[in-house]
Amino acid sequence: MRTVLTGGAGFIGSNTAAYLLKEGHEVVVIDDLSRPGSETNLAWLFEMDPDLGFYQVDVRDYAAFRHALDQINQIDILFHFAAQVAVTTSVQDPRLDFTVNALGTFNMLEAVRNLNLDPVILFSSTNKVYGALESLGVVEEETRYRYQDLEKGVPETTPLDFYSPYGCSKGAADQYVHDYSRIYGKKTIVFRNSCIYGPRQFGVEDQGWLAWFIIAALKGKELSIYGDGKQVRDILHVSDLIRAMMAACKNESAYGRVFNMGGGPENSISVWKEFSPVLEKLLGKKLDVTYGPWRPEDQKIYISDTSRAREELDWKPEFSVHDGIKDLYQWVSTHLDLID
Q1: So which residues are the catalytic ones?
Q2: For the chain, which domains are there?
Q3: How far is CA 85 from CA 169, 187, 206, 255, 339, in A?
Q4: Which residues contact 67 (CB under 8 A, 6 or more apart)?
Q5: pLDDT for 225-264, tens place per residue?
Q6: pLDDT tens for residues 148-180?
């Protein structure tokens, strides 16, 4: 099986590429190597397979991207991970955010269509397409927030309400990918991911919060919390995400479908009040933290209802919150020399 991964040297992309290589598949990575850590991840993949296919191409460059796909020719699966991934960056530079996320995804779809290729296309979308979800009842508890009524979390039937430039660009891309299945018959799948974490995640303060807190704590950097630290997210280990993606790509009934993807209620944790005791136990010491004002785009709680994926893909997470955080901590602590 020949698989192409845009953004294949990123966090999710490199882990997915490694999984495919270990399974004996032919892998081609398309990446502009602009994100910190991508060159390190690419070198790791080349160590696994010196014959790895690689094209250093920016998805914003339609001609170059189409040429790369034309050279590759036969493609069985195309994972589209290439993206601008930080909400804060999108607020600071919305044009960059739009051209990478919306235009870059459109370029991918058009290259596939105009070259008459027919791969399964899995697009990595985001829960941010649902917006701030301000209409949902939220209850404040001692260490976290919880939904008043949504016991299982936010389902795919929730109305879209793009919030922030990032939400708009990813939401537009999300809908283009979905619609290319309806209008052009492409075998597309949309995964609206919650917080994905795991090895090879070079987290920074405004993206990849679990990895960032671990990195900052181990390097003795200042730790800042925006809001009260009770914000809740459902977290999913990258290996569990990969299992879900592969299950979807192998299941024809998943084509043209949208799936919320995350850890669900049982794998939810508040970003500091509940996470800090876990981190402090791993470190063996207490941590100092400063608190700042809430960021306007920050949801008090987001938990994915993953019922559709569980039922239709026969999937469920295997990593618990504590085991997953321990796995990420062990990777970061043994690879600090790779992280700025």
Answers
A1: 166
A2: 2-338 (3.40.50.720)
A3: 10, 24, 9, 25, 18
A4: none
A5: 999 999 999 999 999 999 999 999 999 999 999 999 999 9
A6: 999 999 999 999 999 999 999 999 999 999 999
